[in-house]
Amino acid sequence: VQLVESGGGLVQPGGPLRLSCAASGFSFRDYYMSWVRQAPGKGLEWVSEINSGGGSTYYADSVKGRFTASRDNAKNTLYLQMNSLKPEDTALYYCAASHGSWGQGTQVTVSS
Questions:
Q1: What is the pLDDT of residue 4?
Q2: Can you give the pLDDT at residue 74?
Q3: Left if phi > 0, otherwise alpha if psi is -120 to 50, otherwise beta: which for 41?
Q4: How many CB atoms lie within 10 A of CB 75?
Q5: How far apart are CA 6 and CA 54, in angstroms?
Q6: Which string of b and e fits 4-34 if b means at least 16 CB within 10 Å?
Q7: What's the CA gap between 40 and 86, in Å, rounded?
Q8: How far is CA 33 from CA 12, 101, 106, in A?
Q9: Which stretches of the chain drop beneath a pLDDT of 50?
């Protein structure tokens, strides 16, 4: 089982960024997927969840209306479109499968 996040980087406040999470070694289409983040010096914060078919999504209040989770089950890939980014969105972003596997994370830094 492997989850590999990508797409992180440095972005200015107000800018967009799109994260990807490539899954392998399990039946991706059968599992809910989540995004979780950890800001410097803070604990883990759940960001978003998407059901196995991609038709239902859930968001933390802190990102609702700015972030959009999606998935392409044909490509075994999870996405997180992040818009209107704020400095407080700076964190290490992880994708996680509902069976318990996590990726290694991708760093997002929002700064001018």
A1: 98
A2: 98
A3: left
A4: 12
A5: 20
A6: ebebbeebeeeeebebbbbbeeeebeebbbb
A7: 15
A8: 27, 10, 16
A9: none
